Structure formats: structure tokens, C-alpha cells
Amino acid sequence: MHVTRVDISAIERELQQLWQERASEAARTGQAVTRALTLNLVARATEPQLAERISAMAHELMASHPNRAILAICRPAADAPQIDAWVQANCLLTAPGVPQVCGEQITIDAHGAATAQVASLILALLVPDLPVVLWLPGATPFNEPLLPRLIGVLDRLIVDSRELDEPARGLVRMAAFERDPGLPAGSARRVALSDLGWAALTPWRELTAQFFDTRPLLPHLRRIDRVAIDYVPAPGPPNPAAGLLVAGWLASCLGWTPLEDAVRVVGDTLQLQLRRPALGDDPNTSRPVMISITPVTGTPDAPAGLAALRLQALDGVTADFRVARADTAGHVFTTAVIAGHPPLHRLARCAEPALIDLLAAELRLLSRDHTFSAALHMAARFASQLV
Amino acid sequence: MSNEALGPPPTTGPLDNPLRTGLRLGRTPEPCTMVIFGASGDLTSRKLVPALYNLARERRLPAGFSVLGFARRAWDDNAFREVLHAAVTANSRSGPAEPDLWASFAEGIFYHRASFDEPAGYTTLGARLAAIDSERDTGGNRVFYLATPPEAYAEIVAQLGAHGLNRSSNGGWTRIIIEKPFGHDLESARALNRQVLAVFDEQQVYRIDHYLGKETVQNLLVFRFANGIFEPVWNRRYVDHVQLTVAESIGVEDRGGYYDRAGALRDMIQNHLTQLLTLTAMEPPVAYDPDAVRDEKVKVLRAIRPISPAEALTATVRGQYGPGSISGHPVGGYRAERAVASTSQTETYVALRLFIENWRWAGVPFYLRSGKALPRRVSEIAVQFRSAPTMLFADTPVNAIEPNVLAIKIQPDEGISLTFGSKVPGQAQIRPVSMDFRYGTSFGVASPEAYERLLLDCMLGDGTLFTRRDEVEASWALLTPILQGWAAAEPLPFPNYEAGTWGPAAADAFMARDGRAWRRL
Ligand SMILES: NC(=O)c1ccc[n+]([C@@H]2O[C@H](COP(=O)([O-])OP(=O)(O)OC[C@H]3O[C@@H](n4cnc5c(N)ncnc54)[C@H](OP(=O)(O)O)[C@@H]3O)[C@@H](O)[C@H]2O)c1
User: Residue B17 maps to which CATH number?
Assistant: First the structure.
């Protein structure tokens, strides 16, 4: 098809044909093919290379999340309106004798004014009754014209705060979307938001939480009054989104409240002023908390991302918990130094997770991630003072 | 210094770590020291330490976690670390130990040279543990792992009690893991329970059966109770019979001495197959907690129609392998194995039929079989449903429609497959189609080893996947009369099956008598 209009029934026919071919091919070799779909994965790319990467990922996701992928390549800037669509089966390679599991992919390539048709095509191609996930990679997901047109059928929107070109504004937008995704008034639907940047923080959250899984150390968590977050920025202007999210996570989990004018910019560092709640019933034990978020230069081949996270209680019994990248790539060093205890340290594996793993982790969530929502709203409160 | 008083941390109750919310992985256990008795043995090197290393590698163990090996070998900490390093490199599912990770893990590995029956060794053990507590902040938490010959269990337990090591003095917890075999008949299992429970509380005791640590076995419960599709047909109305198979393709290797005294009934049926049976047949527990789950399992065992010594010969089949060949390699017979008597009457194959006399299962036979030197290594639970009324398809060329079978595979590949009759397109023919679901390929991640899950559960204080006192006794109560019946009977003309075949001919006749056949695996 190479036209300015795409015929839905033609795509359906092609899909059917595709399955028949697969099945008869398999039958010849005494195999079985299973078509398995657990979700509609809609993704938008702005150029062919990105489209190829997304396509490879949809294929790879078949192992954990068999899907119908609908990949829209939208190039509104091209002048001649033109729209193409084609289908392919995404099959998993399996051991001999094991039925092959396949999903399917529909690629839509739209140029110029024809991009306006993409949303209606997508709507017609969704497999009914399966969750619909829209993945918008890129710097400005919330300006995407597809978003308002698909919002009524969406179960989840996936963005990546690491890619935002205006991180502070972006976080505020994310939080606004999380609160009100723009569904028609009275709609009972919910749209969950996923941030792959947040998903990448999971190992760091895990390693930090682990310090406090032990009874003797847990009480120190309520006493933390100093947090230092270091990150290696990606090329370009520093994006403190990850740091703000970590700060938001700690503050929302621990009940810290931001002071008025909480955010100060000191050189490249962001300083956040908060107050932690009192310990027990004594209101005099409420204390200020300071969080700093600092870009650091890593080794030349260090990937962008968090480099160190340190939680300290300086007022009273000193306690110092630190997770920091180790010299061995893909590993971190955890240390806990608390007055009255022997210092504890260990090396732990903590590789920067691959995009596909982050995506798979988010697809595993069935509903809203409340921890993320709370962290995001807090992060957006800080971010709003930066815009 | 401010006037903030931390107050003593509460020592019991759930730990409320606010940073845990929303994290998928469960909490990490508190730092503890695992004392492995039998630290120079095969189990330690092949399973325990690789499992611990992988737990550490997956960030599931806290800093401070320590291992203290106990054996007679003349080693020191460093020598022990080297042995374990080689063991991990050879046996870990994640491949050779990664140098930096290993170095960090090995800082917490220590060796204590002593003999089990030597009281002074336990005094020094206590001192060693106290030193580790203060160096590595293990807070008095400890797990004693009995990876020793079973004859040593009682002695070690008594010594631990005599030296006050059955309780932690400083608010920590103490637990003990006991390997199989747990007794060799009802009397000895009861005696061991008495000895253990004279020193430890039942809550401290973790009787391990590594089958329960396998993902598929745990998924069995999820599959049964979280899935609306199968539970309604999981009963006598729809199920014709159930076959439980644990087949090994190896012989007794170098365990001949132990095995010749044990046999297949003790070595496999009493523990692994009984676990599979109870999980397959149990009623939904009121909660997923250690006691609710184990209560239901015990109820199944108590509902099994007892087999008396007099019935033992008709309700069971025994076999012993002779020379043959497995996967193209010639193998000798059982009686030629090292440390096996040349006239041995020990069974290396056993099959039996059990009936569970409750509302759900009355009249449904459960066939259990296990053997060594069989053609393949395979473990599975197969639920065979009753055949559909065939009239509907009476004019099709197949005279009998294959019944629907749900097979839950445990080894070598974990997964579930459902076989059902399906019409061949374009032809009036029905042929079986199987729908497979494999963990390995479906989730794209290597499943953790059974020991990883179980060691972690014990450190977290979760006994759900361990065998409780009444469970182990109920299982022996069921099997001991069979052992007695066999002992009183005439010797059998062993060997009666060739290595590399599916057991004695009598096993097929046993099924044929009921109008059924073993599944071809
Ligand atoms: N191996 C397996 O795959 C496996 C599987 C399931 C269950 N199990 C069970 O696990 C247990 C251990 O099996 P295993 O195969 O590891 O046995 P093993 O290789 O024979 O090891 C026995 C260990 O006990 C030590 N030991 C024996 N007598 C001792 C004494 N008087 N004082 C101090 N240490 C002593 C030996 O060390 P020294 O010689 O240095 O003293 C050795 O480390 C058994 O109950 C077995 O049934 C084993």
C-alpha cells in the first residue's frame, strides 16, 4: 500500500494471510504456531532509525509480553502527504518441537498532512479487550498530537523523563497528566503513567531500602536530615529529573514537607529545603532536611544516571548510608556507618538496566504505581520552582 | 547532641520500612550468620554456597551476611574460601564467580574446625559467633544448617542445646535447617522430632525438601487457586486419575552405601512425591501463611486410605535395575554399584496407588512412581481428565478420543502443558494438540535454584515451604506399613528391569489391571 489512504480491511486481510502462511509453513514441519497477545503496544517514532529500534523491542518483548504492536512513524514536516502501512509477524525462536509463539506488528508510515489520519487508523487496529499502552519516546511526549486522540482508549502512557528537553517543565507536565490525563468529564477510566526514568531508579531504591530492612537500623531512617544525590549527566544541558524523583521519593515516603522557596540553585547544584516530622510525640524533634542534587563527571565511559545516593543523620547519633557506583563497572558499593555499630559495606551488582527491561517492568504493572505518583508530585513541586 | 531518644527498637512484629512500599522484590533478611555443619561436603559445595552466592549477586542478602563452615577438615578461613570459590565457579547457574563480587561475599566466610561430638568445639563455636556478631553486625541472628550425614543430626542438636546455642542471647533469632532424610521410618522420625523439639521450638525448625523450592511447585498453588479455569474441574467429577512421576536417569552414583539402606520409597516417595501429591490434592488454604498451607497438606495425608503391611504387595510395585544402557551408554546393574550388597533387595523403582478419601477425591486413584536408571530425567504431575462422551464424534476415524491431560512439568524444563483433542482443519479427524507454557522460554530469565528460594525464606522466617513436624510424621505413618509388608515378604527376583527402561513389567501390569497406562514421557 503506498497511497494517501490506508484501507483497514486490507490490513486485516493481510494479517489473516500472514497467519495462514505461518500456520501452513509450521504444519509442513510438524510444528504448531500459537498466536498470543496480551496487550496492544502503540508506539510513535519520528524517524526510521528509532522505528527500527522500537520494532526490535516489540519483538523482544514477545517473550514476556506477547503483543500486537502498532508502530506509527509520523513525519509531519515532510511536504507530500502520504501514508503506508504493512504487517509482520513477530515470532519467538523456541526449541525444536515447542510451538512457536507469535505476535504481530502493524507499521504505519505517515508523511505530511497524512499524519492526521494516524490516530483513527490506530483506533481501528486495536485488538479489543486487551490493554492499550502508548509509548512516546522523545523529548516532548506531551506535545504529541496522538495523545489527546488516543487518550480515551489508553490504559497506560509510557514516557521517559531522562529524555525530556526541559526537565523541570516536563516533570510538571507529567505530574499534571498523572493527576488529570484529560479524559472527558465523568469518565470512569483511568490512565496510568509510566516513566522509564523512574523505572531505572528501581535498583537504587531497592539498595537504599535494604539498609532499613533490619530492625536495629530502621529507626535511623526517621532521623535522616541530609541527602546528597550525585548524577552523571547525559551530554547536553544537565537533566536533574532523576535526582528530583529520588528526592520526591524520599520526601513522600518519609513525610518530609518542602519549605516555602524550597529550591535553591547553587552553581550546578540544586538544594532543596524540607522539614521532617517529629519523632514520636515530641514536636521539638521535627528538623530541617537538606537535599542536594549535583551533576558529577564520571569516568569517560560512565553511563549517564545516578552515581551516588547518600543519606545521613547528623543531628544526634550520626548515621551515614551510602550507595555509590564502584570502580567495577555495573556495580555499586553500599556502606553503612553508624555510631555504635561496626561499619558495613558490600559490593553489589547494579548495571544500568537496558531499555527493554525497563519497558517490560512497566508493562508488568497492572495499575497505577502509587509510590511513583507520590514521588512525581513531590518532584514536580520542586521542579515548579525552577521553571 | 539533641534530646532525641531513639528508644529501643521493637524486637517483634512486622518491620515497617517506608522505603519498601511499591518495590516488587520482597524485603531483605536481617544480617545473620549461617553455620553450615558438614561444610566440606558435597551439598555445601554443589548447592548451598552457589545458592548463597547467587542470592548475594541478586542483591537479596544484606551486607554483614556471614557463613561459618563447620567440619573436621584441616582448613582455615582462607582455605575454605578457596574451596568455595572453586565450588561456585563450577556449580553456579550464573557462571564463574565474578572476582569483585566474590571478594566482597567472601569477606563474610569463615571456617570452624571441629568434630560434631566434641563439646569443646561448640564452646568455641559460640565464641566465634559472638565475634562475627560484633565484627559484622549480625545481631545474634543465626541459621544452623545440618548438611551432615543424618546420623549426626541428633548429636549436633543436643550439643547446640547443651551449649545454649539454641537461643540468641542478644535479641536475635536462631533457626535450624534439617536436610533429608528426616528419619527412616515412623519411629525414627518421631524420635528425631522429639530430640529436635527438646532443644528448639517448632517455629525455629525448617525441615527442607528442595522440591518445594522449585518454581513450578510453588506455581502449582498459584495455578490452582488463582486461576478460575481449573479449580472447578479439580475433583472426582472431572478427574479420572492423577500420575506423579519422578524419574532419574542416573544410578546411585557414589551414594550406594546410603541408598542401599534407604531405597526409592524412602529416598523419593516419602518426601518429594508426597509433597507433589499434597500440593496437587489439597484444599485451598484460608491464607497463604505457613500454618494454613501446611494444615491443608496434613489433612490430605490424613485422608489417604492406609495401606496395611498385608496389602503392601498388591498396592505397590518394586523394581531394581540390572545392567542395561542409558542414552547409548552401557551401565552396570545396581548390585554392582559401589557399597551395594551383591544380593541387595533394595528397590530402585517403586510405583504405588493411593486413594484420598475425602469429598473432592473419593475414588480417584493417585499413581506415584519413581525410579533410578530410567530412560530420562523427568518429573511431572499429570492430571488426566475423564474422556468426553464420544458419541458426538462417533463417525470420526479415531475410535477413542485422547483424554485431556494437564501436565505440570517440574524437571528438566519447568512448565505446564495442556493436551486436548482438536479437529484437524479440513478433515474429519481429531488429534491431540498440546498447549505449552514454559517458564524458561516464557519469562526469558533463568529461574532461581530451589535452594536459593528456600534459604532466603528461612532467613526471612517463612516456613511455608518447609515440612512441619506433623507432616513428616503423617507421611511416615503412611509408608512405614508398606516397608513392614515388604520386609516380611519373600525376596523378589531382582534385578527385574534393565537400566534405561521404564521400570519392571509388573509396573505396566499394575496399571493395566486398572484399565490404565503410564504416560509415555
Ligand atoms: N549431596 C546432595 O546433593 C544432597 C541432596 C539432598 C540432601 N542431601 C543431604 O544432605 C546431607 C549432607 O550430604 P552431603 O552429600 O553433603 O554429605 P557429605 O558429602 O558426605 O558431607 C558430609 C560432611 O559432614 C562432615 N562430617 C561428617 N562427620 C563429621 C564429624 N563427626 N564432625 C564434623 N564434621 C563431620 C564432613 O566433613 P569432614 O570430613 O571434613 O569432617 C562433610 O563435610 C545428608 O543428610 C544428605 O542426605 C544431600
Answer: 3.40.50.720
